[in-house]
Structure formats: C-alpha cells, structure tokens
Amino acid sequence: MSALHAAVLTAFKTMGWEYHAVPDTEVVETWFEAHHTKVLVHAQSHAEAGILSVVANASFPVPDTHREAACELLMRTNKELNLGNFEIDWDSGQVMFRVSNIFSPHRHDERIIASLVHAAVAEIDRLTPYLAEVCRSTAGALPMLDIPVLMRREDLLPQVPEPETP
Q1: Contact present, 57 and 86 (Cβ < 8 Å)
Q2: Region label for 93, one of left (φ > 0), alpha (ψ between -120 and 50) or beta (otherwise)
Q3: 134 CB neighbour count, 10 Å cutoff
Q4: In sequence order, what are the residues at sequence separation of 6 or more whose Cβ sits closer than 8 angstroms to the Cβ of residue 102?
Q5: Residue-averaged pLDDT of the chain
Q6: Strand order in 95-102's β-sheet?
Q7: Which of 37, 65, 97, 133 is most exposed, with the fewest beta carbons within 10 Å of its own?
Q8: What burial class does residue 93 get, using C-beta atoms within 10 Å of its C-beta: 0-12 exposed, 13-18 middle, 19+ buried?
Q9: pLDDT digits (tens, 9 = 90+) for 99-153
Q10: Burial class (CB in 10 A: 0-12, 13-18, 19+), 79
Q11: How far apart are CA 101 and CA 136, in angstroms?
Q12: How far apart are CA 138 and CA 46, in angstroms?
C-alpha cells in the first residue's frame, strides 16, 4: 500500500466515514447522503504520480435524448468552477464531478483529502436539481429550455439558515 493511499484511508477513518476499500487497487468507495441526493464517491490514489482523484457520481443517468442539453449545463457550470470539473460518459449518460490533487512525496495532508471529498459531494449535490430539471423536460420542450435561465434559479438551492442571534 502506498503512503498516499494510507493517508486516504486515515482521512476517511478520521472523518468517521464508512467506506469500502476495493481489493487489489488503491480505491476507496463510499456513499454520502447529501441535501438533494445520495452520492457515490470513488477516490483513487495514483501513488507514482502522487495524485488523488475523487469522483462523485450523479444518482441518475441522462437519457440519450437529453444529453446535448445536459452537456450545455455541464459546460456552463464548469466555466464558473475554480476547482474540479463535471463530466459525462456519453455512452451511459453518467454525470460525474472529478477533482484531483497532486501531493508532494510524503506530504499527504488528510485535511486536503477530506476537503476534496467534501467538494466533490457538494458540487454533484448542487448540480442535481438543475440536471433533474433538464431530464424532466420532454424531448419536445428541450429546444426551448434556456440553460442560462435555468442556472439562475435559486429556488433549486437549499435555503441558507438564518444566523442565530445571541
């Protein structure tokens, strides 16, 4: 086991996350219950390069008929991101958010590892209601779906709790 993968396992244990270590690989998988959906996370260590790649998967595939609109949503969302990116497997319609980090040898910060996982889960959860709106549209209505207008809909985001007054 590489030092990077050991750090990933330690980070997951420290955070109290239940996980499944995939046998004969440096991969950890787990599920998170997020605000909008349940999120499958796949974290893979690439020890030789010092890279950790964390992938969060959307909980539903995009139908063939809706891929073009979904790709526009992903492309426009990616344009606004500072870290990571959304992808789609064109054949299966699986939408993913991928974020990676390159670690210096023997400097595998478990806080960064946990932050990568948090970011991946948060981003796929944030996108889920918008992606669902695209997928709920009828094929006939898709040409009229205005993706930039959809992206401005704040009613699809969780409400921010009011600050507590002392």
Answers
A1: no
A2: left
A3: 22
A4: 49, 50, 51
A5: 92
A6: 20-22, 27-33, 38-46, 51-57, 95-102, 85-88
A7: 65
A8: middle
A9: 999 998 888 888 999 999 999 999 999 999 999 999 999 988 998 999 999 999 9
A10: exposed
A11: 35
A12: 42
- Residue 157 has which token pair? 């985001």
With beta carbons less than 8 A apart as the criterion, state whether 89 and 98 touch. no
Residue percentage of the chain with pLDDT more than 70: 99
Q: In angstroms, rounded to a whole number, what is the distance separating the alpha carbons of residues 149 and 99?
A: 26
> Between the CA of residue 15 and those of 63, 65, 118, 123, what are the distances in Å?
35, 40, 11, 19
DSSP 142: G
